Batch of 4 targets.
Target 1
Amino acid sequence: MIKVIVSGVCGRMGEMIAKLVCEQADMELVGAIERQGHPAIGVDVGEKAGSGKIGLPVGDSLDEIIGLSDVVIEFTNPETTIDHLEIAALNHKAIVIGTTGLNETQVARIKELSVAIPIVFAPNMSIGVNLLFKLVGEIARVLGDDYEVEIIEAHHHHKKDAPSGTALKLGQVIADNLNRNFEQIVVYGRQGQIGERKKDEIGIFAVRMGDVVGEHTVIFGSEGERLELTHRAHSRLTFVQGAVKAARFVANALPGLYDMQNVLKIK
């Protein structure tokens, strides 16, 4: 039985993850935490997630319960994620990180601690998006420098970071397969007298509106044609299912840094 703690359990993703974990025959939800002072502290997590009372209250300290778990599933904010990662590493527990918006220093810390514990770190845990990562890399290699690349992403108006972690990952995958330095050639939107488009740049554009769960379109264009690949998430359930798959994978993995392509065995 895989013993799971869900961090950020009262968020849009956290509630759904807790509910799905409770439905798995090979998993047990042993902890659910939120930030200190959250109004749901002490509330039964099953009732909060819509699963019915399960006798497990929402807590506010990972330190106090980390010893009960095999895996922590983390969908919070960058600062909390790194704090919880440190606790997981200190206690030799696996962790799944779906938090986005982390800076370079925080990502470097994730890489450092993956020497000690198994970590699945992915900006998007949908199966379809991770197939998209693989496809755009292969397409970029085939098309080479003859095609220009633009990425458009859209999310709901509650999303705090832009562009999305998924859009950045798509750009990075494409740049790697074109032997380009992503940080040097990425362009975040365009405005004013910018001059002619540079051949090697990759443009990324963020749209925020309404209740859009997540949409990503990658466009490869030349003088005579364009190829567009689009992924649309209709429900957060696709990310939740991926997170649970990742927890099952990482619970039995050796220390190391993994992504969803490792989980899905498409790497």
Target 2
Amino acid sequence: MRPEAATLMLEVVGLECRRGDRRLFSGLGLTLEAGTLLHVRGRNGSGKTTLLRTLCGLFAPDAGEVRWRGESIRDLGDEYRRDLLYFGHLNGIKGELTGIENLAIAATLDGDRVATADIWTALERIGLAGFEDLPTRMLSQGQKKRVALARLMLSRAKLWVLDEPFTALDVDAVSLLQGLIAGHVAGGGLTVLTTHQEVPLTSGQVARLDLGS
């Protein structure tokens, strides 16, 4: 590991991704230090989701690589995934399970030891008091989104990758999520996100990447 890797968390080197015969982006490079939020911007179809999935190791680039703390994420494998929390377009919520059960399973898969009392507290804080032990198929789309976002309160991951996290949230939930992101960044974490909504993301260090410009 290189000496500067303690602060240099995420690197993208010469990244190229294609969708079929269409090149979304090429020669993409960036470096992000601890305590940074990266806002990825661009029109629909510019490759924002593809980039986020590539950063998570869920999509193999056509060229280049992603590095975490100076090491290729391909080589790090599970070690990288333990430092990562990905929130995509699908909430990953199982309808037959309650919010409590969904979050307990998610914490186990993330490798986090989370007390049941902490899960109840997270759901109450996210605005789901009284709905914690209902099957999530009975919840509204916005409430399901809140269950998924409660993972942010329980996760110990250093890197959050969030694809349109504000969609389907009301004003109170948007405000809470903004606070969670700001707190994560202020604590030395790193957040990469996309959003079409105009929200004041954080008062900390904000980097911006425009795709397709």
Target 3
Amino acid sequence: MNEEAAILTGWRRGRLWYGRLRQRAVGLPTEVAFDWGWALAREERHGDVLGFYHTHPAGFPTPSERDVRTMRAWVSSLGKPLLCVIASGDELAAYLFATDEDAGHALETVERFPRGVVVVIGGEKGSRL
């Protein structure tokens, strides 16, 4: 199986994150690239990039070292906390990266629904998007 990736756009209210997977891409078995230019343009136009989704077909739904480096760079670039949602088989996990030094921490609940909808619960109560 090959890795898949998408950009997660939507909104956040307190600890509730509601997003949709956009610009889906399919890569190789151990790596995938997404349209980073689209993500930057989307953030500039709408300010609604919540983070990124990708699969680990032959691994666990935990961030790799590359995932951590990538998420730190995006947090620094966009200047806001971002989600890293990872699917592996039937398992789905979400991690919040709040700073460019953050290693990410697992959030309580993540569910994927039809039509690319992803709902995540977790994060600091008082933080804003």
Target 4
Amino acid sequence: MATWDLSETRHHVLICNGNSCLRKGGEAVTQAIREEISKQGADHVIHTSRTRCNGRCRDACVVIVYPEGTWYKDVTPEDAASLVQNHLLKGQPLAEKVSHRYNQHAFQRTEHTVEGTVKSVVK
């Protein structure tokens, strides 16, 4: 297993590879994003991780960018170049694909995004 040097990393991209996202092309999205990062020579500033389900299955395929806390919905392999070049390298999120943004207090859902189910409190 590798232990990456993250000292120059500016973005951590979490790519959902849960069942719903895999059915919507999660593996192809993962590969396309990683290929574009390499193509742009940005491996040292952008780190990616595959995740299991992130709980937004109706938004599949889900990609989350940290530290800013931007959640993307309906991501396809064709979105990879724009995501990497515009959001990750230029700081210009893909507005039409954003489902949630962190506003320093909580994640705010964008217009036209499914509201979702409220989590129950375990006592």
